[in-house]
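Hey L., structure's done. Input below.
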Amino acid sequence: MSERFKIAKEKISSIISTSLTEEDPGHSENAWKWLLSLKPDADEVLQLAVIGHDIERALPDRLTRESFTTYDEYKSAHAKRAGQLVAHIARESGYSDEEAKKIERLIGGAEFSSNDPEVQLISDADSISFFDYNVHFYLERSGKGRTKQKMKFMYDRVSGLAKQEIDKILDENPDIAKLLK
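Output:
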């Protein structure tokens, strides 16, 4: 890891650590772990994008689902704002404007399925991490109905490889798996 990566990761992690959603810091690290499991040779730009993909949720004026007409509008705005913030941090940490723009593009598209393999990797790592780490927090906070909806959204957007990883996690958690069925 380069020095600029360490600096950027620390800034991103520091902001995420202030999130009022208790699982956000752990989710960021877990999604990074899953990215490296899916693509061990992921470059620093892709790694920073996955680490910071949900940084927007740590902001005091974070966006809320209720402020948007549709869930997709909310997710798009959330991703765009997160991408802009992580791109800014990357520039401050020594990454080029081109690299920062790539981070912004990667995060900006990662809430939905994508034909771009790198964007899809972020979406995959995020979804796998949701099932691996976040789902119990989400269930406790949001109840079975909303958790079932969230699980369906997270599962439907991923690649076949990510579905295999999620299925393994669900096999180990039959109570959670029932919600998805």
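The helical segments are 3-16, 24-38, 44-52, 71-92, 97-109, 117-156, 160-171, 174-180. The chain has one domain: 3-180.

-- N.
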